[in-house]
Here is the input.
Amino acid sequence: MTNYSTIEFEQQNDLGIIWLNRPEIHNAFNEVMIRELIDCFEAVNLMEDIRIVILRGRGKSFCAGADLNWMRSVANYSFEQNFKESLNLSKCLYIIYTCKKPTIAVVHGAAIGGANGLLASCDFAYADDNTTFSLSEVKIGIVPACISPYVTKRVGEYGSRELMLTGRRIKGKEAEHFRLINKSLPSDELENYVNSVVELLRTSGPKAMSQCKNLIFNISNLETLEQALESTARMIAGIRASKEGQEGMAAFLEKRKPKW
Here is the structure.
């Protein structure tokens, strides 16, 4: 794995942990971190020994959103330069959203602005009760553009209107109420809960989880109900005859653990 300057990659057996690593500025992201996240997630997709990916932040916060010094510097860019860097952020969120492995965001301290796009792009997001969340872009005269598809998928239209138009700050339990995150827990319970989710995922077939993510992506983003009629039948017809599918069904019938 590449050595990065703004993130760290750590492997613990079948678990890949991606750390946002600019703790001195609460892991605010810039163009370098965006490129490095893209590179790291692309690499993780190809690592057969990694089954689950966790995204989290070093230091006091998960992520303070975009680095404002970087944001101010883009005023000197041409529109095309500005568009290119914005497109990279969109690509970063998309590659997290489409990662072949289950992804978990573990959030603490603060998740401000674009940080909510990073966590919303993950399959699961869990937070410390004391975490502060804010879609604060309107407070500095901009909009949460690139992150909006993922936040709105989680929160829905009218929840997004409330959070994005007011930019108000909320804590973990309210973020859970909005469904921005899956669950908010006391700080001393968060790690154990995340570990319990990891253990549940380890009991699922790796290829089945990847195919399940493809299934959800397709029916949520690409296909009509009529199109899904045939595509879903084709998917299950192929998977239930696969090596992993046959092993899973045999293990169930033989009352043993599957070999994955």
Summary: The two ends are 24 Å apart (CA to CA).
